[in-house]
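Sample intake — LysR family transcriptional regulator
Collected from: Paenibacillus cineris
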Amino acid sequence: MDFRLLEYFLAVCEELHFTKAAVQLGISQPTLSQQIRLLEERVGMPLFQRIGKRNYLTEAGQTLKEHALNIFHELEQAQSEINELKGMQRGRLTIGCSGNHLLTRTLISFHQKQPGISISVVELATEETRAGLLANKLDLGVVFLPLEDEQLVSKELYTEELCLAVAKQHSLAAAEAVKLDQLTEVPLILFPEKFLVRQMVDSYSAQAGVQLQPAFELSTMDSMLQMVRLGVGATILPRSYLLQGSDPSIRTVPIVEPVPQKKVGIVYRKQTFLSTAMLAFINELIRTFTPSGTQSM
């Protein structure tokens, strides 16, 4: 089967829109439609069906998509191994992360050691990172654990805890610690429910016998802190993020009884070829979060 046809097919799978896929590929829409029809003739079944104004994958299309993604993944893995044999010092890593702040120190130190490796970091919810790894769109994830999946390998880095963040003029700013039941009347700015940090807040609140209702739901930590600075309310965020800056307008208050906490770790696909660049980055992460630096791979 022509690899070009599979590339065209995957572009349509991604967009589910022939015109947008054609623009992405740099070809005309009639040409793309003709190529997809040719592919359907070769497999002997329709790959897409149109319902109303939208295109959907057929069962055959879904099957071909899964195998096509694996084919291109294997080709990339082969190229990575060949590059290793050639001693190539250049490459690229794409990383999904539950918070870009987690990688700042590692990115700086790694770039100093491996300036030829370019790195793209995408801030994603944990489940989005899982999907990206399984779809071979990410090389590595740094996420909250556990992330249970038989196709993934995980390695623990450290334990993260959640803290309350309030403006310095807030009534709780001088508190040494707070309990979750003290926050029932406080306007809260929290993540939407798909984010693991929000799920942690809800889970620990349930343990404490309270239900916290956010006044606002925002999807980035920067925007949440901006609302706190403006005195709109309080937020609950990872301690590592709150302590990375020295914003005098924000107070960080520990949460106790119970302390909301969860492991943070590295995840990657079991079938992924661990290139020298990827191994070096993983070891750099371990050195960043392990003071002794003795747990390298």
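Post-analysis note: The mean pLDDT is 88.
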